Every structure is written in structure tokens, then in C-alpha cells.
Batch of 4 targets.
Target 1
Amino acid sequence: MNTFKELKNLPSVKAQINFTLSYNNMQSFKDAFVSIKEAYPDIRLDDINVTLFQKSSFYFENENLMEIDKHLMSEEITRILRMDCERLSLNNFLRKTYLRLYLRYIKNKRYPLKCQALASTCFLDPYGNIFPCSVYNRKLLNVREMNNNFDYLWNTKDAKRLYYECATYLCPVCWSPCDAYSAIVGSLVKALFL
């Protein structure tokens, strides 16, 4: 909290707190928010990003962890959305839309908007390997193979195949905020009316 307070005092920094809902902290967001508010009374929900636990065999290396109870998750997301009555901001809009659409994702086990993996996003690991996203363990290539030519990357047969797989639910089908936010922006009109 001391670091957060110091960062909030810097005019060029937009400091935020990230709260990841998982099976360890389900139903505790409100208590956490109240505790943060005691330490920093000016905190607003706009200062907090809320994400949901994701599994990934190569990024998080947590594939064996327990799944979150979908009913409890839905209840917690609904409680957070009810708490959020703040003015509209970009962070507020993205968080609320992400959470609202996560409820659809839980119900249908399909991402509610077209995935942007290998359309506008990709995941680059520390070794230079490029993947569609941080959840789909399908290495496309290494940046050393690209010769600084991103057109080459996006236009390979493998990239087109993986893009198709991600766009048509042939991947692990996540609603990770890393990709969900780009999907929201990429399908903004649809996101507003879902």
C-alpha cells in the first residue's frame, strides 16, 4: 500500500491495483476493497483491475490447479458489478465489460467476442517464442526466425491456421483479460450490446 500511495502521488503515473479472483479468494473482493480503503481512503473502483484466474501449461504452469466453482464465481462477479457505480472511464468500462461478458463465458464456455489472437495480439515469451496467447501452448515461431518482418509472421500458413483455430473455438477457449480487452476493443459495438 505504501508503494501504491507513493505512485499515486506521481502525476505521470496511473497506479492501479490488480485483484485476481481465484478459488483462494472467492467472495473476498468487498472485504479486500474495504481494507484497501482503510489504508488509502481515496481509492476508487477505477483504481482496481479485476481479473479471473486462468490456467496455462506454459505461462502460469498451473494446469493441475483446481477449477473455480462457476456458481461462486458468477455470484462474486455479480457482487463486484453491483458495487461499481462510478463515473465512466476507460478502465471502468473495460473492467465492467470484461466481467459482464465473463458471466456469458461461464455459461457458454465460449468467448463472447471474436478472439483477437494473431489478429491484433500475440504472446512473446522471454526466449523470443511467439504464441497466439498466454493460454494456447502452440508455438508459432521465434523472433529470430522473422528477420524483423512482422508481415512474415502474420502471413505464414501456421499463423493463419492458428488464427483460424483461435477464432473458431478450436483452442483452449479462455477469456483471459490479456486477450479479452483487445476482443472488446476489436468488437466494440457488439460488446456494448451483449
Target 2
Amino acid sequence: MFQKYLIVASKKDKAGINICTHLAQFKENPVISSWAQKPSFDFYFVEDEIIFTENLNLDKINQYDFIIFASKHQSEKNEKTLSIHSPGNFRDADYGGIKGKVCPSSALFNKTLYEKLNEQLIKFNFDNFKATLECTHHGPLIDKPCVFMEIGSTEMEWSNRRAGFIMAKTIQETIEEFKENEYREIAIGIGGPHYCPNFNPLQLKSNVAISHIISGHNMPITREMILETIKKTFEDVDFALIDWKGLGKSEQRQEVIGILEENHIQWKRTSDIKR
């Protein structure tokens, strides 16, 4: 499984630097970690924006098992969020990566991150921020399993020290405690809005672990999109999880179901999952 982690942040990104500054206090001596056969992490600070593949040293990245991008999040509503998402593009690649391509994603690691993040918010009584998944979006495009951890959504939140600490503590505990769980059900998500209101509770409180999520904003959702997310999920995918109302009209839902069934992919509604 994953042993060597790389935390990537841009020197221009206040949220990324905030997270990494706090995470540095948890970094152990690499010799001791190696001797004890414990997972370890290193830092990689990039001069420019990390969403653009051309700004990254891919030779360096490929030396690690798993990549965590520490970053800011921006939104029109300026909500206070601590968010997690897999990177990749479906409709366009205006913000890095390649159209139609997504990065490898671990459903089990993403689930553990999200569980830990919610635990930290409760533990440190930090309820003025909301933990949320985001649908798969933006670059970069790399060949290693990876995830984005983001603080949103304004400069005030990006520099919030408590937010940086909670994200750092989430990363540290997930790296130290992460284990494979063969009893989890592995899924991709399809449909719904960007902040995944029907996938969030399942990632937190069900047996399902979700890797990539294709937002309903990407409709019409194609066979290529669905197969790409399955191909790029690190674990074997058991089924597609559909946000039923988040797929628009009946005709659009039937198109997606037709693609899944033609390709022998099992599917379930989010409402079918026990919590």
C-alpha cells in the first residue's frame, strides 16, 4: 500500500503554505520512519500554480506512492470550507490537466481523509467551517494516486491558523493510520451539484468509499467519462452511485443507466445506501 507521501503546495498559495507550516511539526526523522517501517511524507514547494502539470517536476512526483496537494479554494459564495476532491477534467481543461482525463484516485484514502476531517472539526470545536467533498475538477494530470485538500474561500480563511492546523492534523493522522479495508464497497459518484450534498453523508457514515465524482454540471454524461473514472480508481470499483435527482430529467437519467448497463457496470441510487 502507500508508504511514501508527497505534500505539494505552491509558494504563491497562502492556504497551501498554511497547511504545510502546521504539518511540518508532525514530520518525523525519515531514518527513524524507515527503520520502523512507518509511512512518511515529504514536502515539495512549487514556484507557480500547482493545477498546471507543466509547473510540476514529474520525475520527483513519480518517486512517491501518493500525492496530496495542499491548496486554496475559491467560490462565488465565499463559504468557509475545508474540502477534499480528486483532480481531473471532463468537459474542458481551462484550469490545468487534459480534457477528458482524470488522475488516479483512491476511494479508501479519500474516505479516511473525510472521516478524519470531520473528527477534527468536532474535536477542536471548529464548527464555523464546513467539511465537504467536491466533484472531480481541474488539473494537474499526473500518474500517481492523488487528492486535493483545500481551505476556502477567501484570503481570510486561507490564512486562518486553526483551519491550517486542522487540515494538517487530518493529513498526518490519515497517513499514519490508513489501512486497506477489503470490506468497503468501492464506488464512483455520478450527478448532483459541485459540493456533493448526497455523497458527503455516504462518504462519512456508510460502508461505501467514493473515488471520483462526475458532477451533474457535466451533462450529457458520456460513456468515456464513466469509464475514465473507473479506470482511474485505484481500487476495483463495485458500482456507480447515482445522485438520482441530481441527474436532471428522466431522459438524462435513462441515458446514464443505459451506458452503465451496456458496459456491465452495476449501479445504485444514493438513497439505496444504508448509513
Target 3
Amino acid sequence: MSRHLAHRMDGRELVRDWISPNTRRAYTRSLEQLSVWLAERGLDLCDEAVADYLTEMFDAGLSPRTGGQVVSAVRFQARLTGAEPAIGPKTRLALSRFARMARGRGRGQAQGVQWEEADRIARESARDGLTGLRDAAVVAVMSDGLLRVSEAAAIEVEHITPLRRGGATLYVPHSKTDPTGEGRTVYLGPPSSAYAERWQEAAGLEEGFLFRALYRDIVQPGGLTARTITNIVKRRARECGIDRASGHSLRVGSAQSLAAGGATLVEMQLAGRWRDPRMPEHYAQAQLAERGAVARIRYGG
């Protein structure tokens, strides 16, 4: 082994020793999640990609601490490998905005809007004319389907199939955990499918995107963007007294409602199309604890 290579390896060992084993594990987990996100989008690790990742973390309701850990992990990896860190002005700006706008958030936990709250938001929204009827359908469908905002934006009229016994099925053609585009089918209860049907009829939609922009009650041809759907959820939740909702809140809240109702982690994972059962477990910690081993065995819960 050359002296130069031995010196470089010694340096890497010194870098490793700067952080604790717990921090190393946290960095490894952050880097693995970032790597999956990049691979799903066909992106390379760069300043712009890390900035976009932080923006998506913010939209998902995660905490500034979680975003900062990603940046620290990327910097640590660069030191370890001797490469230039993929952290530049775009990442620094995104992290600064993240810290400022998400101040006060907990440890990576988006506020959940559970079923009862989603039902109330939909009812109140539906009273607000054509725009409100659309927003009610957005909220109800996202709640039943545990939809990501990107999935809601992609819904087309033909993706919804009414059922004879009431309710409907919704075909979800794409999701970030379905890179091959096979699609998944989810269930919409009778109230949610009714909101979607009422909106479709009122808007005169026969094909194409289900959720569309309105200008003076005139339906526009293009579908809503994920950002617009996020803003709809936040605004309608705020009107019902829920101030810290995000575009991810309906998905989180439905996971919490499923856990409170006795769903297993596997059932929650399938309903939300999560690749890893640790995600619904993270979102529904409190509900799962209430029916955990201590609650059941010691206290008969």
C-alpha cells in the first residue's frame, strides 16, 4: 500500500471518529433515503437536487432538524470520500427557508388531519360554491386514498369506477414507490365518491384531469399542480381551525385513524403504498401505543 493511500485512509478513519455511532447511523439512514429519492427521479447528487429534496421534505411536514441532518450527512460523506460536497447556494437557501418557515415543528412529524377532521373540512368546503365543492372532493378523496399531493394532481375522471354497493374504486397510476408505473387501486367510501361525482357533474367533466383550476367559476382545461393542491388543503384546514396542516396531513391523519381503529402495520403500509412499514409506524406512534402490549396485557386496553 502506498504511503499516500495509507495517509488518506488514516484521514478517513479520523473523520469517522469525529461523530458518535448514533450520529453515524442517523447519517447513513438519511443518505439511504436521499439515494432512493434520487434514483426514483433519475437524478445525480448535486446542489439543485438536494435543494429540491429539502423542499419536498418541507412540503411533507418534516422538521427543520430533519432537513439539517440531510445536509450534514451529505457534507460528512464528502469528507469521508474526499469529494466536493454537493452543497451550494441553492441548498443553503432551501435550508434557510425550511428553518424559517417550519419553525416550531416537531421531530419530523407532520400534523395529521384524521378522518373526523377531514369529514368536517369537506362538509364546510362544500358550502362554498363550485370552488368549495372541488376542494371538498380534493380533501375527501385524498383522505380515503391516503394520497400524496402528486397522486391527487394526477387523477383523471376515468380513474374512478363507481361500485354497485356504493362508494368507488380509484386507480392511482403513479406514485414515488411505484417507479415501474404498475399502479394501485384504492377504495373511496360513499361520501368521498359522492363529493367527486358532484364536482365532476357540476364542472361538466367527462374525461381528463379531475381536479382543475377555476377562473370566475369557469373550469380551466389543465389539472391542478401539486403545489396548488397543497395550498387548498392548508387553506381549507385553516378555515376549520387547523393551523399547521400541510399537503401531507391528510395522508398522515388517515394512517393515524387506521391505527386507532385497529389496523395492522401491514394493512397501513398497503393502504398508504409505503415501501417501508416504519413510515406508517412513525406517523401513528401514539395510536399504536394505545393498543400496544402494555395497554392490552397490563391494562386490558
Target 4
Amino acid sequence: MSDDIPFDKSFGLKPDRVREIAPRVRAIAADNPGPFTFKGTVSYIVGRGQVAIVDPGPDDAAHVAALLDAVRGETVTHILVTHTHRDHSPAVPKVKAATGATVFAHRPSRPLHTGELHRLDASADMDFRPDVSLPDGEVVSGNGWTLEAVATPGHTANHMVFAFKEADLLFAGDHVMAWSTTIVAPPDGAMSDYMASLHKLAARSEPIYLPGHGAPVRQAPRYVQFLIRHRQGREASILHRLGKGAADIPTIVKAVYIGLDPRLIGAAGLSVLAHLEELVARGTVVTDGIPSIAGIYRLA
């Protein structure tokens, strides 16, 4: 199902080594590879002299040290966070303490409701609090750089990307990545929000996205269209399976995810749940009670 997307699984960054990858942009990858993080979470340094850091990454001593070493002799004025999964924001307190920078993000993690659990390896950083909550469209600027905050909920409720005006590129967090599709895992993730955010990005002109994992996304508007068509195809596959009769989520996963890495079965189930939540909301699919991972689903 993902063969229709022109993935780029190349990756040239060695862990905790800084490299300039675009004008006024340096990248450092954390040494936290895994099925959800690929080769590791990528942190970015924007500007020279007075700089911003985008996504300081996990609470990993070696990565924090590498980040701080990379900006030695410079002033970090801003820390920007795309979202509050544990591989992106937990290094913020240490970097803030060392630099005195102001922390910007869309908002804290969505509070968990009764009965909800953290899910996946990249669960929410519930302790994160930005100094400044950014609304959609807000502009943050520093010495020689301007970043536009673009709200892109879907992967998480508080996901936000940042358009770097002077370089005509966009820091995409986990919303759009070159190496893989994005996991949309309820309750924090929502497929309706994710699709709306993809359409929002498709209308933008930045040709390059720098994601939270993996290599840069080239020809980004075209690539986003591939992602939209892929999700539409996934929805069609789910409806095709339900056309054969009622089914639970494990049955649907087996039908629509062929050759899936066993480590990703749980994540695939949550993505199917996200699709089903939207289909139930539209009245196309029905289930008993609210959509859940344990539910039985059938066509309306």
C-alpha cells in the first residue's frame, strides 16, 4: 500500500555530529534509532550567532551535550518544539537551563482522560510546558531568520511545523517524513485532523521539508499529494474489507497491511482505528458504542 510513495531511506547524519544541511541550518541526530524513530530524532539549529533550536530531542545526555557543543560561543534565543512526543521535547529543560532560551510551541500535550493510556514508544511528554504558546500563523524571528508557526494537528493534537522564510523550507516534525508514513494514533492523534493538515501543507510552496526523522523531503508539495492519495487508498482498503463483512481491527490490519514489520502491528492497529473513527463520524461505518481498539466494525 505504501509502494505508491517515493520514499527516501537514505540518511547521512552520524549520531550527535553536527552538519550544515541547508543555508543557516545545522542538523544533529540523536542516537535513538528504532521502528518509530528510524535512525534517530533530528534536532536543528537555525541561524548563526544568535540562534534557534528546533526540537531538542530526547532526554539523552550525549545528545544534549552535542547540541550545546554545537552552539558554543553562540547565543540560543529560541527553542521551538514541533510536538511533545518523548523523542522530541524532553531535552528542553536541560537545553533551556544551559542557554536561558525562551521555549515556543503550539501548546502542552493534551491531558489524558480517564481510562486513556500512553501508547507506542513515542508517548507524550506530559511534563512539557512552553514559555510561549504559538497560535497558527504566528511569526517568530531572530537574528537573520524568520519562522512562521503552522498548526498541523493529526500526528498529535499539538503538532506544529515551522516555515523558515529566508531559506524557503519547512521544519516538518513528524507530520511529513521522507522515510515513512506518519503514525496517527488515537486518542492524541486524529485522522480527520491529519488529512486536513496535509491539505493545508499541500497548498504551501516550500519545496523542501526538514523532518524530525530521516532525510529532507524534496519536491515537498508533490510528495504531500502522494501522502494524501496513500491515506485515501488506505481508507478504500478498509472499506473493501468491511464490504466482505464485519471485522475487528486485527482482522483489518491483516487484510490491508501486507508484509508489515511485526514491531509495527500495534501502530498499524491504531492507524486503522484513526481511519475508523473518521469513517464512523461520517456515518460510513458503524460500531457498538464509541470507536475503540477492541470494537467490531461494519458498513453502515
